[in-house]
Prior knowledge:
heterodimer; A: mainly alpha; two-stranded antiparallel ribbon; about 0% strand; B: alpha+beta; two-stranded antiparallel sheet; 7 helices; elongated
Amino acid sequence: MTRWDRSVPVYGVPVITRGFWALLALIAVGLALTVVREVVGLGSNISGMSDPFAWGLWKTFNVMVLTGLGSGGFAVGIAAWVFNNKKLHSVMRVALLTSFLAYSTGLCMLGVDVGRPWNFYWVLWPFSWNLHSPLLEIAVCMSLYASVPLFLENLPPLFEYIIYEFPKWRGVAEGCEKAMAKVYPFIIGLAYILPIMHQSSLGALMVLGGNRVNTLWQTPFLPLIYVWAAAFLGYNCVVLCVLLAKLAWKRDVDPDVLLELNKLTVWIVYSWTAFRFLDILFRGKIAHLFTDPYALLFWTETVLILGSAYVLSTENGKKLSTMFMAHAVCALGGMIYRFSPTTLAFHAKDGATYFPSAIEFIVSISFVGIAVLAYLVAVKKLAILPGSNAEWLKMAKYEEQVKPGIQLTGYAPVEH
Amino acid sequence: MYGGVFKLYRTADGSDHSYFKQQCMHCIDPGCMNACMFGGLRKDEATGVVWWFGGKCVGCRYCEIACPFHIPAFQWDGFNPLIVKCELCRDHIKKGAKQPGCSEVCPTNAVIYGRREDLLAEAKRRIAAAPGKYFEGKVYGEHDGGGTQVLYLSRVGFDKIGLPDLGENSIPSGLKYSHMLYKWLALPVALYAGMVAFAGKNFKQHTHHLVEDQKKTGLRPQL
């Protein structure tokens, strides 16, 4: 039984691996293709989008799905800081980093997807805002969230890195840390309210899709259902990250924290599913669950998400392998859910279909590649992944051998 | 790619057909305009014509999602795409034209132009003059989708000529509950204040524990 006391960098493994180069190559190809896209436009030689299906993979996957998975920063954060769930502090840094990477790459992808990105500067000019537009809310809130509170929340590991690696700058970094600690509650408050707002607005977007969005999904409560789904997707992502770290680098896991996250996932999923069914019931669409041609999709989502939550709630769900599978399947279900209103259950026009082009796939994956690459470098250089104090001491011993002069233990605070 | 304005509906066996003109309905409460972030789509104050202003358009294509009539068309090719839609010859009318090209050249008065109340009265007159001729004896757009400024009479079903059954509520009215939550930003601000209060209390407690831990372990506390 390990206890996660603090974040510890992944040590003793090279940063530059074959995977690193492979990801870099993928990113290069993706970026080259975005240059082509900027020059020739989004026509049929580039994307599979069309006027009836005006939104494709880039918006739905890179923004709607991935920021859903990147919701750990606020989903874990609210549980830890607002509801004082102390165990969860240990996974905060993983949650914050995945959130930041998902949001920043998602926003970049959005810049590639839109046709006239040079006009986006209007976002800085509040008098031009159309306050009725859910997309305006997302544009303002998402960029503000990623660039201010989420960015600031991700700085402490960097300060720490500077303190250990560049003793000359230690005073400055510690000053920054102290300043941050003074206003931290105000920052994290912002880091929770903004995602609640824009994750729900992602759902509000499709309310304007009217009855082209299948009735099993279309509801005035779409915003609430979206932000709720973001919560469990965020937990899924954090659990998968720490379990993958165990697989990849044999990091120890703290079963207490994982079980806590399981419990939260289970209750969020149960209430989310119940709410969806009640919504359908009260809208008088219950028959559609059995007769609608899209019902199979609805049941697929429900079975994947609810089924995996049920597995997590059983004794079997405490086994790491089962837990991993359950969270992966739950995330898959949630990702499918986020694809439904925009694409899968969106009846754009008779005869109109959408399937992403190869270029859309490659660019989309390459932007995910940027996030993965940054994540892999970050967890090896910075203290992100949770570990025990004993692990930290082992790491310190190792680092002191590799880099004589570095001191990672016996710390005494500097008086200013 | 711009869809073609005039279209033909024909049954599979060719027994029935009808031409129709598919164009912007210039809704009273337009979905596209409500969707647009910075006011790239606007409604002319005098005429109610919905027009596109490229200087504020980001090219996000949300207007295409929000329009139940599939009207705004995006130029998919090229590095400087425009949104193209019917603006009822707004430019020509500004320059002194009496009416848009379509109604001006129509020899049979199948397309006419005027104030909405006059058009509505004329439509009702035509229905009364030829009972049973028009589908459901109804003027499409009088109430549909919250009311539109372009009105249709049709012999065949409206769904056959690209006019969906929208009910009487406008597309943006679907968001009325969401707008209530954002009124004056009161709820978000209250939530923010509440979360800061709890987080502040817990943060103090947490940093206290961090200092205690540091005394025990000698390791630098982490936030």
